[in-house]
Amino acid sequence: MAGSQRREATLTAAAAVFARQGYHGATTERIAQAAGISQPYVVRMFGSKENLFLAVVDGCLEAVLDAFRAALDDGQPGTVASRLGSAYRALATEDGVHLIVMQSYMLGADPVIGPVARDGFTRILHFMVEEAGLSESAAESFLAKGMLINTLLGMRLGDQDDPLAQRFTQTVFGPDPAGPGPTDR
Amino acid sequence: MAGSQRREATLTAAAAVFARQGYHGATTERIAQAAGISQPYVVRMFGSKENLFLAVVDGCLEAVLDAFRAALDDGQPGTVASRLGSAYRALATEDGVHLIVMQSYMLGADPVIGPVARDGFTRILHFMVEEAGLSESAAESFLAKGMLINTLLGMRLGDQDDPLAQRFTQTVFGPDPAGPGPTDR
DNA sequence: GTCTATACCAAGATAGAC
DNA sequence: GTCTATCTTGGTATAGAC
């Protein structure tokens, strides 16, 4: 397999593992298994586990911003916020973009991952108000709902056997004209 | 030092470490240092790192619910949501209750921590609608803002050297009559 | 109740062959 | 481009003394 293609496949596999286990919980061995290659080769390709994680996070950030930009130009009806919400929903994939980003956010105290996480969030923030034209208040609501979605995904609230929890999950992820919707569950 | 007192002190130290590093990132050695005792003794007291984490999470959940219950009866002016928000704000301590809870939420895929995290969130949800009397929609807004706050705390957005990010942080944490406010930063 | 010493294992990284 | 073998470290847990 060609280098760049192998690299892509490994990034995808790594994303899925990092999404579930978090940075520290994930092992390069598990990532290697998911990618169908040997553990040392994973390390070899990216230099270190940390570098690999940063590459994954960067890819997710770009994916989110690309999806948002596309949503601004898609000529669909609805408010900007609702179109961005749909884009966020459509972004749902098995490799769990939302969870990767969230995992990086929870590592703000890490000297190397922390700054990257803050930069990424800041870029999204700037996109919201400068490119999408949302008010800062609207951006706050949008991002709050996004964080709620990410959190429910992370904890897998849908697995909870409780009527209220079930209904709540449905409501949050269900078609909602004013915010991000369902993702990868 | 008496057993129960030592236990409490260790739980507090562990909370601070788990809040910053997450479950997998934290080490019992670091917790021991923070508590001023030896690493094996930390393990001895709680049986395992996992048990210790579960004890910390449980303590945080109780702290949140206690604070919320107290806020319902405090006779302060304002809506229920704003009083709960103030309680959330007042809960701010060095040991980072908000981050502990959030770290547990991101471990939903873990076979033992996952169920505990879901149960905890479900209890808060039930409190909101059954004891506090919030509509499910109001509970969603409240929790969304709470998750945004937790996320900003986790990534330490306040450290970001960017005007918009700074302003956003201030807005989210600042006195807001309709949601949770500043916590431990 | 608390420590020191240590066993034991998992995991990231390196060396070097093919 | 990819593997096997292995080094090394760090981290949880146990044993046992004081």
Overall description:
2 copies of one chain form a homodimer. Chain A is mainly alpha-helical and 185 residues long. The first copy, chain A, has a domain of 120 residues. Helices cover 72% and strands 0% of the residues of chain A. The first copy, chain A, contains 9 helices and no strands. In chain A, α1 crosses α6 and α4 packs across α5. The longest helix of chain A is centred in the N-terminal third of the chain and has 24 residues. Chain A is globular. The first copy, chain A, starts with a helix and ends in a 12-residue tail after the last helix. The C terminus of chain A is likely disordered. At the A-B interface, α1, α6, α7, α8 and α9 of A face α1, α6, α7, α8 and α9 of B.
What layout of secondary structure does this protein have?
2 copies of one chain form a homodimer.
Chain A: H1 3-25, H2 28-35, H3 39-46, H4 49-72, H5 80-90, H6 97-105, H7 113-131, H8 136-155, H9 163-173
Helix pairs in contact in A: 1-2, 1-4, 1-6, 2-3, 4-5, 4-6, 4-7
The structure holds a DNA duplex (18 and 18 nucleotides).
